[in-house]
Amino acid sequence: MKIATYNINGINGRLEILLRWLKEAQPDVVCLQELKSENSKFPKTAIEEAGYQAIWHGQKSWNGVAILSKTEIQELRNDLPGEDEEFTHSRYLEAFTNGLVIGCIYLPNGNPYPGPKFDYKLRWFERLAEHAKDLVDRDLPVLLIGDYNVMPTELDTYKPEKYINNALFRPETREAYKALIDQGWTDAIRKLYPNERIYTFWDYLRDAYGRNAGLRLDHFLLNPKVAPKLVAAKVDKHVRGWKGASDHAPVWIELADGEIIQPKRKNKDHKNQESEDTGDKVASSDPKGLTELMKDLPESPIPAKVKPMKATLVDEPFDEPGWIYEIKWDGYRAVAIVNNGEASLISRNDLVFDQFGPINDLLDEWDLNVVLDGEIVALNDHGTADFGALQNWRNNKTAHLAFYVFDILWYNGKDLTELPLRIRREILDAVLPKEHDLIKTSPTFEVGGIEFFEAAKRMGLEGIIAKRADSVYTADARSREWLKIKAKRRQEVVIAGFTRNEGTGKYFSALAIGVHDQAGVLRYIGKVGTGFNAASQKELMEQFEPLITTESPFDIEPDVDEPSRFRPRRLGAKATWLKPELVCEVEFAEITSDGKVRQASFKGMRTDKNPKDVVLEIEADTEVMVKETELQADLEDLGQPVLKTPGSKPVKPERAHKTPGVLLTSNADTEEQKVDGHLIKFTHLNKLYWPEDKITKREMFNYYHQVAPFMVPYLKDRPMSLNRFPGGIHGESFYQKNVKDKAPDWAKTMPHTNDKGEEKDYLLGNDEATLLWMATLGCIEMNPWFSRAQSPDNPDYCVIDLDPDKQHFDQVIEAALEVKKVLDAIGIPGYPKTSGSTGMHIYIPLGAQYSYEQSQLFANIIVKLVHQQIPKFTTLERMIANRKGKMYLDFLQNRPGATIAGVYSLRPKPGATVSMPVSWDEVKPGLTMRDFTIHNAVGRLRETGDLFAGVLGKGIDLMQTLKQAQNLFS
């Protein structure tokens, strides 16, 4: 069941937008706020024609709320208990529908703070809390839904510091919301996305939507009766981008019922709607709009055979614009060819599926000429696909059979395969009959891929499919434009024999399985001994007996009784070999270093697969696949094909930064994750690294995972000085530079002989895996060299380090602005960042063209000029004792091997501050270190992008600049 809330902000002025969204999203229940409509002017007729009943409580100017439902609504109350004589524009409407008690809420904004409106907001919250006490423990499922005008946490705003005194974010308001939660209510969005920034509102001003400068104001609170049924949630953000739309976007949650993953059936025009039990036959006329979509396509005969397009397996989900997502169904891939009253259902191995009689019969009745691509599945009582039930469907027809269609390849004499997927889906939606549950459209989801993948895992699905929205259909090809990400590790394998252990009474103990290599040779990959019962073993033996042979079909006869570290003793297993003609599917935990499956479980036979086609499916690198696909699309847009030489990959251009989601999501104290293809073990995840701020080691890892795309370019090829804090910020710390015999084999290092003649290996910060491995050592902060391994004596930048003693940070700001005056006077750029501790760093790009000595000379000239302007509180004295409490203008950092906290680095300081780039416009009194922390840095990056990119750009002409600076100095 899909339940939504939407602050429409004027229902009559935005009625067209509301109806468009209702048709698209098909929620079962909707709460609306800010109707701005008197009761008599509520658009009841239009809502009913859209298929919804409604109750409402309107108001002309300020507000008004409504509840829409596809089923009968019984109003329970239209206000909260209690009264208030001031500012009575808040609204509460409560109803019973779909077996749920729905409380629809509009809670006032409360600005300005302080003031009477804010006081009224708190009083109204008290009324809500009193009523919520009576509802929370009800036996009925209760939901309190709507616009609370509250941002409960810093994750609910793109810029917490901006709203610190706003009524939406005041501590009193947040405490009032927390008091509700503490009664036993579940915040649905935060439950599903505990560590992600989710926004539901974007102001009309300053292109807030375009910058994703959003807030989360719309909330779902669920009582304990309904909270366990929560399976998914989403903000339909794209609606906010529609012309003339409200400043809020619709938000919805999904509750489990009998068909939790089924797409909601779209309502037909009420004048033409047929009853459910008379709609098996469909009309043959072209649905409206198809002529325009297909007008330029040439005539084409219906294909006699179709080899389906295949998806490439990749290792992890991703978020990228231009991709849509589908459920990866656990069934049989099938192409339906329907022409002139005759229909056939074909497997991808050219076998005829005639065992699924109800689907075949329905296709025969269709008065359509069409070719469809989809998946046949058997659905269990929870609405999820059950592969075992599909296999046994002929013998036991208790599961619900369905053919989920996800593509249309040919229609009424037109080949559609060259059309973009998005257009093909529009045609499919228009063409496919809606009157029967046996054949239905597989839903698409335009959401974040990482979010969708996590939802798929929670729902026990096999995985997801990511498809480029503009991809064409390439038959019989494994495409980079369709990518599959598995939530469970599955593999099709050839059954090449079975074993029986000594003394067993079973038909067999395990299956000996294999896959073909690139040369077509069958290779042994281990055994599968679970997933059978006595009945299934008997059925399998009937298939095995005609195939028994005396010769092993493997290239090398395996030892099927071989002990392993998981089973150290032999079991007396004897092999019976089979001709390699049967294929099954197995689920497994991992593939060991010697190429064997571990903890494999039998999932069913695959009669739709050719044994010769069964190869080991290796996960490709997601980032590489996505970038190559986008490069191909970019070049095709320019009319240029991608040229490759054998074994080469296309040159990949730099893409815009993307910010991945959370890496470590469980509550376990230890977790393993694959990063850049390398398995990394993360331990002591619940340890508090910033005790005062209750920030754990897990949060540190997740932060570096999220900022890695921005940070790694400034670490790549640079030797790292490891500043380790294994016990957190208050524990013992130490520096480590030499990683000889300590770094992982995959990590890149630079041999280095120090001044004492000692041979060392310095770690190079080349990728995210290295960044996170350093973090596992307790490296809270990251300290790269100024130069790279390729040019160790030539720094990429010169740094001016403003190191205060007892100065207020506003004086650091003043010194930074004096540095800028000097740089402006000699016509060179400078890039400021906070140190994350007490000072600031200003970087000047050199492009690795000069020596450290030259860089230090240049920095010395600059700081002398600055000191001349502000001598009262600055000094050039290196010795702390000689500084007399003044700010040190440090130019000596520009020397070989010196390091400072890198850009975007966390700091081992209270507050978990970050060394953050800032624009010069931000360098002004009032800026503080605590403006940039582990909590808001990622959100800031999403808004600003990388302000430091110029640091790695073309360097200045230092010789010319020195001349100008010396003239200025003299």
Automatic annotation (TrEMBL):
Q: PROSITE patterns, alphabetically?
A: AP_NUCLEASE_F1_1, AP_NUCLEASE_F1_4, DNA_LIGASE_A2, DNA_LIGASE_A3
Keyword annotations for this protein? DNA-binding, DNA-directed DNA polymerase, Exonuclease, Hydrolase, Ligase, Magnesium, Manganese, Metal-binding, Multifunctional enzyme, Nuclease, Nucleotidyltransferase, Transferase
One Gene Ontology molecular-function label: DNA ligase (ATP) activity
UniProt lists compositionally biased (Basic and acidic residues) regions at: 270-280
Which residue ranges does the record annotate as region Disordered?
A: 263-295
Q: Which domain of life is it from?
A: Bacteria
| The protein's Enzyme Commission number | 6.5.1.1
Q: Which Pfam families match?
A: DNA_ligase_A_C, DNA_ligase_A_M, Exo_endo_phos, LigD_Prim-Pol
EC primary class: ligase
What cofactor is needed? Mn(2+); Mg(2+)
> Which family is this protein grouped under?
Belongs to the DNA repair enzymes AP/ExoA family.
Q: What is this protein called?
A: DNA ligase (ATP)
> Which organism is this entry from?
Mucilaginibacter terrae
